[in-house]
Design brief:
- The chain is an alpha/beta fold and 296 residues long.
- It is built from eleven helices and eight strands.
- The strands form two sheets. Strands 5-4-1-6-7-8 form a six-stranded parallel β-sheet, with helices on both faces.
- Helix 2 crosses helix 4.
- 40% of the residues are buried.
Protein backbone atom coordinates (compact mmCIF):
# COMPACT_ATOMS: atom_id res chain seq x y z
CA UNK A 1 0.00 0.00 0.00
CA UNK A 2 1.41 3.37 -1.03
CA UNK A 3 2.23 6.03 1.54
CA UNK A 4 -0.42 8.32 0.00
CA UNK A 5 -3.09 5.64 0.31
CA UNK A 6 -2.06 4.92 3.91
CA UNK A 7 -2.35 8.64 4.66
CA UNK A 8 -5.84 8.77 3.15
CA UNK A 9 -6.93 5.64 4.98
CA UNK A 10 -5.61 7.02 8.24
CA UNK A 11 -7.46 10.29 7.67
CA UNK A 12 -10.68 8.48 6.76
CA UNK A 13 -10.44 6.31 9.87
CA UNK A 14 -9.97 9.43 11.99
CA UNK A 15 -13.03 11.08 10.44
CA UNK A 16 -15.14 7.97 10.96
CA UNK A 17 -14.03 7.70 14.55
CA UNK A 18 -14.68 11.39 15.30
CA UNK A 19 -18.07 11.90 16.93
CA UNK A 20 -20.67 13.93 15.06
CA UNK A 21 -21.18 17.49 16.21
CA UNK A 22 -24.55 19.17 16.32
CA UNK A 23 -25.69 22.71 17.14
CA UNK A 24 -29.00 23.73 18.70
CA UNK A 25 -30.27 26.98 17.14
CA UNK A 26 -32.63 28.69 19.58
CA UNK A 27 -34.85 31.27 17.88
CA UNK A 28 -36.44 34.29 19.48
CA UNK A 29 -39.81 35.09 17.89
CA UNK A 30 -40.77 38.80 18.01
CA UNK A 31 -38.43 40.93 15.92
CA UNK A 32 -36.42 37.87 14.90
CA UNK A 33 -38.81 35.51 13.10
CA UNK A 34 -41.76 37.87 12.72
CA UNK A 35 -42.90 41.44 13.40
CA UNK A 36 -46.53 42.00 14.31
CA UNK A 37 -46.85 45.80 14.06
CA UNK A 38 -47.70 46.35 17.72
CA UNK A 39 -50.38 43.66 17.73
CA UNK A 40 -48.81 41.80 20.68
CA UNK A 41 -48.74 44.86 22.92
CA UNK A 42 -52.24 46.09 22.08
CA UNK A 43 -53.76 42.62 22.55
CA UNK A 44 -51.85 42.15 25.80
CA UNK A 45 -53.20 45.34 27.40
CA UNK A 46 -56.70 44.85 26.01
CA UNK A 47 -56.94 41.44 27.68
CA UNK A 48 -55.12 42.55 30.84
CA UNK A 49 -57.72 45.25 31.39
CA UNK A 50 -60.50 42.69 31.06
CA UNK A 51 -58.80 40.26 33.44
CA UNK A 52 -57.36 42.57 36.08
CA UNK A 53 -58.97 46.01 35.76
CA UNK A 54 -58.51 49.43 34.18
CA UNK A 55 -55.52 50.34 36.36
CA UNK A 56 -53.21 48.25 34.14
CA UNK A 57 -53.43 51.06 31.57
CA UNK A 58 -50.99 52.99 33.79
CA UNK A 59 -48.25 50.74 32.41
CA UNK A 60 -49.33 50.89 28.76
CA UNK A 61 -46.88 53.50 27.49
CA UNK A 62 -43.58 52.19 26.15
CA UNK A 63 -41.73 54.45 28.59
CA UNK A 64 -43.47 52.81 31.55
CA UNK A 65 -43.10 49.12 30.68
CA UNK A 66 -41.13 48.02 27.63
CA UNK A 67 -41.63 44.51 26.24
CA UNK A 68 -38.41 44.01 24.30
CA UNK A 69 -36.57 40.84 25.32
CA UNK A 70 -38.67 40.30 28.47
CA UNK A 71 -40.78 37.26 29.29
CA UNK A 72 -44.57 37.42 29.43
CA UNK A 73 -44.47 36.28 33.05
CA UNK A 74 -42.03 39.07 33.91
CA UNK A 75 -44.11 41.62 31.99
CA UNK A 76 -47.26 40.59 33.87
CA UNK A 77 -45.42 41.03 37.16
CA UNK A 78 -44.14 44.46 36.12
CA UNK A 79 -47.49 45.71 34.80
CA UNK A 80 -49.42 44.52 37.85
CA UNK A 81 -46.91 46.20 40.14
CA UNK A 82 -47.18 49.51 38.24
CA UNK A 83 -50.99 49.20 38.39
CA UNK A 84 -50.84 48.75 42.15
CA UNK A 85 -52.19 45.19 42.16
CA UNK A 86 -48.90 43.80 43.46
CA UNK A 87 -46.87 45.21 46.35
CA UNK A 88 -43.71 47.02 45.30
CA UNK A 89 -41.74 44.92 47.77
CA UNK A 90 -42.70 41.62 46.09
CA UNK A 91 -39.63 39.70 45.01
CA UNK A 92 -40.21 37.10 42.29
CA UNK A 93 -43.45 35.72 40.89
CA UNK A 94 -44.89 34.24 44.06
CA UNK A 95 -48.18 36.16 44.23
CA UNK A 96 -51.50 34.41 43.53
CA UNK A 97 -52.19 36.80 40.64
CA UNK A 98 -49.15 35.31 38.89
CA UNK A 99 -50.15 31.69 39.37
CA UNK A 100 -50.63 29.45 36.32
CA UNK A 101 -54.31 29.11 37.22
CA UNK A 102 -54.77 32.87 36.77
CA UNK A 103 -52.36 33.52 33.91
CA UNK A 104 -53.09 30.52 31.68
CA UNK A 105 -56.61 31.72 30.70
CA UNK A 106 -55.22 35.25 30.32
CA UNK A 107 -52.54 34.11 27.85
CA UNK A 108 -55.15 32.06 25.99
CA UNK A 109 -57.35 35.13 25.68
CA UNK A 110 -54.41 37.18 24.36
CA UNK A 111 -53.78 34.53 21.69
CA UNK A 112 -57.46 34.51 20.71
CA UNK A 113 -57.49 38.31 20.42
CA UNK A 114 -54.28 38.34 18.36
CA UNK A 115 -55.58 35.69 16.00
CA UNK A 116 -58.85 37.61 15.54
CA UNK A 117 -57.13 40.90 14.71
CA UNK A 118 -54.52 39.28 12.46
CA UNK A 119 -57.32 37.48 10.62
CA UNK A 120 -59.00 40.81 9.95
CA UNK A 121 -55.75 42.44 8.81
CA UNK A 122 -53.12 39.90 7.65
CA UNK A 123 -50.78 42.77 6.70
CA UNK A 124 -49.97 43.15 10.41
CA UNK A 125 -47.92 39.93 10.20
CA UNK A 126 -44.52 40.63 8.63
CA UNK A 127 -42.15 37.67 8.42
CA UNK A 128 -38.57 38.84 8.94
CA UNK A 129 -36.28 38.65 5.87
CA UNK A 130 -34.56 35.33 5.23
CA UNK A 131 -35.81 33.41 8.25
CA UNK A 132 -38.08 30.96 6.44
CA UNK A 133 -35.31 29.86 4.09
CA UNK A 134 -32.80 29.70 6.94
CA UNK A 135 -35.02 27.57 9.19
CA UNK A 136 -35.70 25.29 6.22
CA UNK A 137 -31.96 24.96 5.52
CA UNK A 138 -31.27 24.02 9.12
CA UNK A 139 -34.05 21.45 9.10
CA UNK A 140 -32.69 19.89 5.91
CA UNK A 141 -29.27 19.56 7.58
CA UNK A 142 -30.67 17.99 10.73
CA UNK A 143 -27.58 15.86 11.19
CA UNK A 144 -25.74 19.05 12.16
CA UNK A 145 -28.48 21.41 13.36
CA UNK A 146 -31.63 21.41 15.47
CA UNK A 147 -34.16 24.25 15.40
CA UNK A 148 -35.62 25.37 18.70
CA UNK A 149 -37.50 28.28 20.27
CA UNK A 150 -36.34 30.43 23.17
CA UNK A 151 -38.92 33.17 23.48
CA UNK A 152 -40.39 35.59 25.98
CA UNK A 153 -43.83 34.65 24.71
CA UNK A 154 -46.13 32.39 26.65
CA UNK A 155 -46.47 29.02 24.92
CA UNK A 156 -49.92 29.64 23.45
CA UNK A 157 -49.01 33.06 22.01
CA UNK A 158 -45.56 31.96 20.85
CA UNK A 159 -46.87 28.99 18.88
CA UNK A 160 -49.61 31.17 17.39
CA UNK A 161 -47.03 33.68 16.17
CA UNK A 162 -44.88 30.99 14.55
CA UNK A 163 -47.99 29.62 12.79
CA UNK A 164 -48.91 33.11 11.58
CA UNK A 165 -45.35 33.39 10.22
CA UNK A 166 -45.78 30.13 8.29
CA UNK A 167 -43.77 27.74 10.49
CA UNK A 168 -45.00 24.31 11.49
CA UNK A 169 -44.72 23.50 15.19
CA UNK A 170 -42.88 20.23 14.47
CA UNK A 171 -39.89 22.19 13.10
CA UNK A 172 -38.88 23.33 16.59
CA UNK A 173 -37.63 20.38 18.63
CA UNK A 174 -36.65 22.31 21.76
CA UNK A 175 -38.80 25.03 23.30
CA UNK A 176 -38.63 27.36 26.28
CA UNK A 177 -41.39 29.92 26.78
CA UNK A 178 -41.89 33.14 28.71
CA UNK A 179 -44.64 31.66 30.86
CA UNK A 180 -42.03 29.41 32.49
CA UNK A 181 -39.82 32.09 34.06
CA UNK A 182 -39.89 35.81 34.80
CA UNK A 183 -36.20 36.14 33.92
CA UNK A 184 -35.13 35.26 30.37
CA UNK A 185 -31.77 33.91 31.54
CA UNK A 186 -33.63 31.02 33.22
CA UNK A 187 -34.95 29.74 29.87
CA UNK A 188 -31.91 28.05 28.19
CA UNK A 189 -31.77 25.14 30.69
CA UNK A 190 -35.50 24.59 30.11
CA UNK A 191 -34.91 24.41 26.35
CA UNK A 192 -32.20 21.79 26.90
CA UNK A 193 -34.53 19.78 29.13
CA UNK A 194 -37.28 19.85 26.52
CA UNK A 195 -34.83 18.67 23.85
CA UNK A 196 -33.60 15.82 26.05
CA UNK A 197 -37.22 14.69 26.28
CA UNK A 198 -37.87 15.07 22.55
CA UNK A 199 -34.80 13.23 21.24
CA UNK A 200 -34.37 9.48 21.32
CA UNK A 201 -31.31 7.83 22.85
CA UNK A 202 -29.99 7.18 19.34
CA UNK A 203 -30.09 10.87 18.37
CA UNK A 204 -26.89 12.90 18.57
CA UNK A 205 -27.33 15.50 21.29
CA UNK A 206 -26.01 18.99 20.44
CA UNK A 207 -22.62 19.89 21.89
CA UNK A 208 -23.63 23.54 22.12
CA UNK A 209 -26.36 26.03 21.25
CA UNK A 210 -26.64 29.50 19.74
CA UNK A 211 -29.34 32.04 20.56
CA UNK A 212 -30.71 34.12 17.67
CA UNK A 213 -32.45 37.31 18.77
CA UNK A 214 -32.98 41.01 18.21
CA UNK A 215 -32.46 42.56 21.66
CA UNK A 216 -29.69 43.13 24.16
CA UNK A 217 -31.53 40.76 26.52
CA UNK A 218 -31.12 37.95 23.97
CA UNK A 219 -27.37 38.55 23.96
CA UNK A 220 -27.16 38.72 27.76
CA UNK A 221 -29.23 35.54 28.02
CA UNK A 222 -26.75 33.72 25.77
CA UNK A 223 -23.69 35.06 27.60
CA UNK A 224 -25.15 34.13 31.00
CA UNK A 225 -24.69 30.50 29.94
CA UNK A 226 -21.50 30.88 27.91
CA UNK A 227 -23.42 30.50 24.63
CA UNK A 228 -22.80 32.35 21.38
CA UNK A 229 -25.42 34.74 20.05
CA UNK A 230 -26.49 35.91 16.62
CA UNK A 231 -28.06 39.35 16.99
CA UNK A 232 -30.22 40.79 14.21
CA UNK A 233 -31.35 44.32 13.49
CA UNK A 234 -34.88 43.36 12.47
CA UNK A 235 -36.40 44.35 15.82
CA UNK A 236 -36.29 47.72 17.54
CA UNK A 237 -32.65 47.70 18.69
CA UNK A 238 -30.02 49.46 16.61
CA UNK A 239 -27.04 47.57 15.22
CA UNK A 240 -24.71 49.87 17.15
CA UNK A 241 -26.30 48.98 20.49
CA UNK A 242 -26.26 45.27 19.66
CA UNK A 243 -22.61 45.47 18.60
CA UNK A 244 -21.66 47.04 21.94
CA UNK A 245 -22.61 43.80 23.72
CA UNK A 246 -20.72 41.41 21.43
CA UNK A 247 -17.95 39.73 23.43
CA UNK A 248 -16.41 36.91 21.43
CA UNK A 249 -15.69 35.64 17.91
CA UNK A 250 -18.60 33.22 18.36
CA UNK A 251 -21.02 36.17 18.33
CA UNK A 252 -22.21 37.96 15.19
CA UNK A 253 -24.47 40.88 14.37
CA UNK A 254 -26.43 40.87 11.12
CA UNK A 255 -28.58 43.59 9.57
CA UNK A 256 -31.06 40.83 8.80
CA UNK A 257 -30.89 37.16 7.84
CA UNK A 258 -31.64 37.37 4.13
CA UNK A 259 -28.09 36.32 3.17
CA UNK A 260 -28.67 32.63 3.85
CA UNK A 261 -25.24 31.60 2.58
CA UNK A 262 -23.39 33.97 4.91
CA UNK A 263 -25.46 33.07 7.98
CA UNK A 264 -25.12 29.35 7.24
CA UNK A 265 -21.37 29.78 6.87
CA UNK A 266 -21.19 31.23 10.39
CA UNK A 267 -23.43 28.49 11.81
CA UNK A 268 -21.31 25.81 10.15
CA UNK A 269 -18.24 27.44 11.68
CA UNK A 270 -19.89 27.26 15.11
CA UNK A 271 -20.59 23.55 14.59
CA UNK A 272 -16.96 22.89 13.72
CA UNK A 273 -15.19 25.18 16.19
CA UNK A 274 -17.46 26.21 19.07
CA UNK A 275 -16.40 24.30 22.21
CA UNK A 276 -18.88 22.08 24.06
CA UNK A 277 -21.08 23.96 26.49
CA UNK A 278 -21.83 22.71 30.01
CA UNK A 279 -25.51 23.49 29.54
CA UNK A 280 -25.65 20.81 26.83
CA UNK A 281 -23.12 18.35 28.23
CA UNK A 282 -24.61 18.32 31.73
CA UNK A 283 -28.21 19.40 31.14
CA UNK A 284 -28.88 16.65 28.64
CA UNK A 285 -28.04 13.89 31.08
CA UNK A 286 -26.03 12.13 28.38
CA UNK A 287 -22.62 12.35 26.76
CA UNK A 288 -22.20 14.69 23.81
CA UNK A 289 -19.30 14.80 21.35
CA UNK A 290 -16.34 17.01 22.13
CA UNK A 291 -15.04 17.09 18.58
CA UNK A 292 -12.46 19.79 17.95
CA UNK A 293 -10.79 21.76 20.68
CA UNK A 294 -12.67 24.99 20.07
CA UNK A 295 -9.73 26.85 18.56
CA UNK A 296 -10.34 28.80 15.41
Amino acid sequence: VSKERKRRMSRSSHLLASPARRLLVLWDIDGTLVNLSGLSRSSFFHCMEEHFGAEVRRAESEETVSFGGKTDLGICEEVLRVAGYLPASLQGCSHDLLSPQILRPFFEQVATEMERVAGEDPSLVQVCPGVQELVKNLEQQNDRFINGLLTGNAEVTGLLKTRLAGFEERVFKACAFGCQASDRTHLPPLAIQSLATALSEEDVFPHSAVIVGDTVRDILCAHAHGLPCIAVGTGGTSLEVLQEHIQSPWDRVFDDLRDTEEVMRHLQWLVDHCPPNDLCTKGSGRAVPSGQDGES
